Amino acid sequence: MSRIIGNHMVDLIKHFKLDFDLLTYVPVTKTVLFERGFDHMKLISRVVQKELKCDSYKTLKAVKETDQVFAQNREKAVLGKFKLIKNVHDKNILLIDDICTTGNTLKECVKILKLGGANEIKTVVFALKKEGK
Predict the structure, then answer these.
(1) Which of these, 16, 32, 56, 129, could form a disulfide with 49 (CB 3.0-4.6 Å)?
(2) What family classification does the UniProt entry report for this protein (predicted)?
(3) Do 122 and 94 touch, CB atoms closer than 8 A?
(4) How many other CB atoms are found less than 10 A from the CB of residue 115?
């Protein structure tokens, strides 16, 4: 599945001619990693990195456990969830994630990357949640 999603993202990146210095991804929490045994976004980012022959690093770490699916206020639930673990100063970043439900996770990650000195941050997701669903 990671190959299918990763290759779809590669197609989008090429189609829109996205230019960036560094590929990174939204990481899973420790609980999700323990339950699944793998970080699906890390696997997807490896596919994208290999196909595009680009630099890719884990720049963010999930430091707060949240269950956003059941949270009353998803925006508040994600606040403080991530911390920066790699230098991104003066980098143009492509941030990838599997699903964008409300955009709050991506916004929080972008905020942390910007605070770390990143120049420009572009995002690519595999799927978007339809309004009202």
Answers:
(1) 56
(2) Belongs to the ComF/GntX family.
(3) yes
(4) 10
- Taking only the tens place, the pLDDT of each residue in 93-115 is 999 999 998 899 999 999 999 99
Kindly list the distances between the CA atom of residue 9 and the CA atoms of 65, 89, 111, in Å, as whole numbers in the listed order.
27, 25, 22
The sign of the CA dihedral 57, 71, 111, 65 is negative
Residue 34: name the closest of 77, 69, 65, 76 by CA. Answer: 65
With CA atoms as reference, report the closest residue to 31 among 63, 6, 54. 63
Sign for the pseudo-dihedral over CA of 27, 30, 32, 35: positive
CB atoms within 10 A of CB 10: 17
Q: Which CATH class is domain 2-128?
A: alpha beta
